[in-house]
Amino acid sequence: MALAAQGFRDPRHTVPTMRTFSRTLARTAVLQIDSVNVLQRAHYMPLFSRMGPYDVGLLHRAAERRPRRIVEYWAHVAAFMPVELWPHMRHRMEHYKREGHEWMGLPERRVLVDSLLAEIAERGPSTSRGLDEGLPATKVHWGWNWSETKRALEYLFLAGDLAVAGRTSQFERLYDLPERVVPREHLEAPTPTRHEAGVELVRRAAAAHGVATVASLRDYFRMRDDLVRPAVAELVESGELLSVEVEGWTAPAYLHRDARLPRRVDARAVLSPFDPVVWERPRTEALFDFHYRIEIYVPEAKRRHGYYVLPFLLGDRLVARVDLKADRGAGVLRVLAAYAEPHAPAETAAELGEELRVLAGWLDLPDVTVAPRGDLAEPLSAVLGEG
């Protein structure tokens, strides 16, 4: 049910279109954004996992051209969300505006904010660097020091006073006025009450999950518990959510009334670490008995499976995991490690090899190579013609 809700029963189109994109986004509800580009940026991957090879220009059109279908905001974390959710995020924007009062306390910061808004109004979409080179960025404790300009722009973005018109080739945000980004019908739509907004977000989270606990519904849009529980209660009362028990789960669960229970799911996909199927690690373990952690920030000597490890979905089970790297200079998709789960079927290596060929083709990488690390490496290498 969880996989069907996420679109893994939808037929793949030979050539995915904007209609395919819209259908897929309706399943996932949001696309998490992350700057790591060792394979492919996070927001592109869930679409590939469900649609197959597609033109990434579809996403760019949806996010950057009229009529905009998606807009960037702090919806899960940084994420693309359907543009019609803009009014439902206003309570969150007001929260960030209030939280920023302490930072805004210095008069010179208010001057900076006002000058940035005026400059963007005049020049149009702008990067932080373009507005103010600021201080040299130095890496400290896995993060970056920001200039005052960047801090002000992020404050205005979170507060809803600026929107993101797109990204540069260096993945920098292009900030612009909301009225030049968000379609008028959504920008001028009435503001829902905080409770109404909570109901809509829980409704979409429930549809995306199929069946979920309160904790999972809360996590999908990173909501407060005092907003989620009343929303769940209302949706149960209306019959949109059904209270159920799931064998093996300790917490009560809620089934969306439109969730499908297919006889089988014949999926085959590698999943980004930021895919909605696996981004909430306790849910992933409860559903698939698959313990998964991203190890980007783990020192190399202590990594168990690798730097950028993707679970492999076959049928309705997570049967393997692969550490992947796109070596664009050499034109090679590198499998740095490959591990099978204890229950992996005999055809795992063959199916994974075929999916990696498809992935490599989509990334415009002519070759796939497999390093001798992990119990699945040798059979995978043989499938790919290396053994």
Verbal overview:
This protein is an alpha+beta fold and 387 residues long. The chain has helices spanning 2-5, 18-28, 45-51, 57-64, 90-99, 107-123, 128-131, 148-158, 184-187, 194-209, 214-220, 225-238, 281-288, 348-362, 377-383, and strands at 31-32, 70-74, 78-82, 139-140, 143-144, 163-167, 173-176, 211-212, 241-244, 253-256, 267-270, 309-315, 317-327, 332-340, 367-370. Helix 2 (18-28) crosses helix 3 (45-51), helix 6 (107-123) packs across helix 8 (148-158) and helix 10 (194-209) packs across helix 11. The protein is globular and about 65 Å long. It starts with a helix and ends with a helix. Residues 134-145 have low confidence and may be disordered.
Summarize the SSE layout with pairings.
Elements: H1 2-5, H2 18-28, E1 31-32, H3 45-51, H4 57-64, E2 70-74, E3 78-82, H5 90-99, H6 107-123, H7 128-131, E4 139-140, E5 143-144, H8 148-158, E6 163-167, E7 173-176, H9 184-187, H10 194-209, E8 211-212, H11 214-220, H12 225-238, E9 241-244, E10 253-256, E11 267-270, H13 281-288, E12 309-315, E13 317-327, E14 332-340, H14 348-362, E15 367-370, H15 377-383
